[in-house]
Amino acid sequence: MARLYEYQGKELLRSAGINVPPGRVARSAVEAGAVAEEIGGRVVLKAQVFVTGRAAAGGIQFAENAPAAERLAGRTMLGRPIKGQRCEMVLVERTVEIAREMYAAVIVDNAARRPVVLFSSVGGSGVEAIAAAHPEALVTTEVDPRCGLAAFEAREIARRAGLRGRELVGVADVIHKLYGVAAASEARAAEINPLVIASGGEVVAVDCRITVDDYAVFRHPELGVAVAREFDRPPTALDLIAYEVEKDDYRGTFYFVQLAEGFGRADRYVAFHGAGGGGSMMSMDAALAEGFRIANFCDTSGNPPASKVYRAARILLAQSNLVGYFGSGSGVASQEQFHSARGLVKAFREVGLDIPCVERLGGNQEERAIQILTQYTADLPAPIECYGKDTSARFCARRLRDLTETYDYAAAREKPVPPSHSSSYAFETVTQGTVSFDYSRCDSCASKVCVEECVPQILALEGDRPALNITPEEARRGRCSECLACEVECHARGNGGGKITLPIPGLEAYLKSRA
Amino acid sequence: MAILINSEDRVLVQGITGREGRARTRLMRGYGTNVVAGVSPGHGGEEVEGVPVFDTVAAAAETEGELYASVVFVPGPAVKEAALEAFAAGVKLAVLVPDRVPIWDVLAIEAAARDAGARYVGPNTLGLLSVDKAVLGMVGGRAEAARQWFRPGPVGIASRSGGITSSLAYYLGRAGIGATTLIHVGGDPVIGTPLQDVVRMFQDDPETKAVVMFGEIGGSQEESVAELIAEGVVTKPVVAFVGGKAAKEGTRFSHAGAIVEGSRGTYEGKVGALREAGAVVVDDYDEVAEHTLGVLRDLGT
Ligand code: SF4
Ligand code: SF4
Question: What is the ipTM of this complex?
C-alpha cells in the first residue's frame, strides 16, 4: 500500500472537481515564502511526512504573511525530523474558516470484498473514535465496483447521516467524486478528514490521505510512486535497488526490505533470505531466539528463476557488518530448490563469501540443491551448511549461532579467482543479462556439462562448442530461463568457459559509495 | 470425499502455454487431475502435455464439454480477464495462482463470481490438493514429490502460507497423520476463499475428522474461524498455529495480508479468540503434529 503525500492526494481531488484550499508544495524556505505571497494573507504550513499526529509534533504551523511563512518553513520544518521522519516538503495553503467538520472515505473492505463508502457528519478525529462516539452519525455503504457509486446513492448517504438542503447536495457531490478518485487511482483507502463546511458554506477537503494498491501502481504512472510499498520511512538505497529488480520480473516473488542500517558486528545482525511469508516468519523467530538480529527481510518464492535468487543474494550481501547469512523458508517448498542453490552459489562465489551461512533448502530436489550449494562453495573462506526438509528452522538457527561463535571474522582470506574469460559467442537474456562462452576453454572441455544441464535445453553442440539451438531473439524473450547452469555447473564440472552476467542497476555504485 | 476437487472433476488450465502453465500441467496430470483442456489465446489447435489448447474458454467448453474448475497461470494483471472469461463459460471454481493481482481487479472478480454462483481460490495461491486424487495449482511442485510427501488420512489442512501448506502436510504425514485435502487460501488481503470458508467445508466433509490450520497476523480470518467454533457451526476439532509472533507492529512481510492494523489482526487477539472458542492453539510449530495426534486420539480415530 504505497501512500501518497497529502499534496498529491489533494491534486487528485482537485482534478476531480473537489474543493481544496488554494496552495502548493514547497521544497525550500524561499519557495514557501513565494507560495505564501501568491496566496496572500494568512497561510498554513503542513509538513509532508507519513506520520500521524503531525500537528502536535510541530508539523502544522500557521503564518500571518509571506516572510513569516519563509521563516517558519526554514527554521522549524524543512530538513528537520517530524516524529523521526525528515521533512523535505511543506504544503503551503490558504487557511479555511471552519464551520463544521465531517469525515468521508472510500476503502476496500477486505472481508466484504467490496469497496465501502464511509461518511460521518462528525469529523476531525480518527474514524474509530468517531464511530465509537457518534455511531448515529456514521453511515457505511457497500458499493458494486462494476457500477460505481451513483449520485443518488451519495445523496442518500448524506441524508442518512443527517444532512439537509444545500449541505446535503454539496457533501453528496464530494462523496460521489471521492469514489471516482478512489476507483480511478485504485486506492486501498482514500480518506478526507476533515471534510469541512467553511464559514462561507462551501465544502472543502482540508486534509487527505490516499494509499494506493501496490499491484496497480504499474498502470498509474501519473501517481508518481517510486516504490510501490508502504514504508514507515523513506526507502533506503538498497530498497530502491531491490525494487528495480523486483518490479519488472514477473517470474516468482522477490521482496526485500531493509530493517536496520549502520550496525556493527557486535550487534549480531544476520542477512535473512526466506522463501514464502509464513515459513519466513517462523524462521526469523528462530533466528531471534538464538540472539541474532535481522538486518533485512527478503523472500524469493513462487518458483523464481535462479537469476532472481542470485540478485537477491547479491543485494543482501551488500549490507555491511553482517555476522551471518541465514536462509530458511517453510522447509517443504514446491519449487525446485536447485535453482535457488545455483543462484546462491553464483552470488557467494562472486563476493567470496566471508561470513558463515546456514541454508535450509527443503523441498523438491533438495538433495541436489544441498549438493550444489555445499560442494560448489567448498573453496570459499566461510563455512556454508545446507539442510533439507527434515531439519527444523530452529536447528538451523542454532547451527548458525555455533558457526558465528567460533568464526574468526578478522582473519585475512583469499577470494577464489574466477577463470579468465574472453567471449567467443554471446546472447542476451530476458533481464538484460548476457550469456557468453569462451571457446578457447570449451575446446578443451571434456564434460560439455552446460549442454546437459541447461534446464530449458536450448544449448547444443555445434562441432565441439556450445551454442543456441534456438534464435538469439527467442533466448532473449525468455526461453533462456536464466537457470545459471552454463556458469555454475560449468565452473564446477566443466572447463570454466561459460559465463552469465546479470546486471543489478545501482549495486556497483552503491558498493563503491560504501567503500 | 475431500473438498473442492476430486479425481473425476473436469479441469481447464488457462495460460497453459506459459512457463508455469506447462510445468504445472505436467504436475497436475501426473498426480491424477482430470485436465481436459487448456486455453492460450493465439495457440488454439496446439497441444501441451497431450492436452488440447483452445483460443477461448468458450471454445474449450464447446468442444470438450462442461468444465468444473479452471487453474489460472497468466501474469497478475491479466488474471481478472481470465477469471471473468472462465465464469462466463460456466466454470464453477477458479484457482488464481498468480500474485500481484490488482485489488480492484479482485473486487471485479468477486462481483462476477457472485453473479455466476462460482467460487475462486486465491489470488496468490499455491492451490489445493486432495490426497491421491487431484491437485489444482502447484502444491507439491512435481507429481512424484506430491505422492511421496502427502498421505491420505482424516485431517483437513488450511493455510495462509503457501510453503507451510506442504510443510504441514509433510510433517503431519511423517508423524503418521494423513490428510483429506490441503489448501493454501492465498496470501493477498482480499481472497475468494478465506480460512473460515474452508473450515466450514471441512466441517461438511464426512471424511475429514479434524482441521489443522496455519494462520497469520493481519486480517480477520482467524477471528472468523473462532466465531464459527463459538457459534457451534464448526464442531470438529481445530488445531491452529498462528505465525508472526515476533513481528513488530507495522512490519510487513511479503504477504500483503500480513500487516498488523491497529489492534485488529494481532497475534494476541487471534490466539485469544481461537483459544476462547475452544481451538487447540499450538505455540511451537514443531509440535503441531504431536498436538494433532492428541486430538485424533481423543476422537478415537
Ligand atoms: S561446460 Fe563450460 S567449458 Fe565446457 S563446453 Fe560448456 S561452457 Fe564450455
Ligand atoms: S543458456 Fe541455458 S543454461 Fe545458460 S542460463 Fe540460459 S537457460 Fe540456463
Answer: 0.87
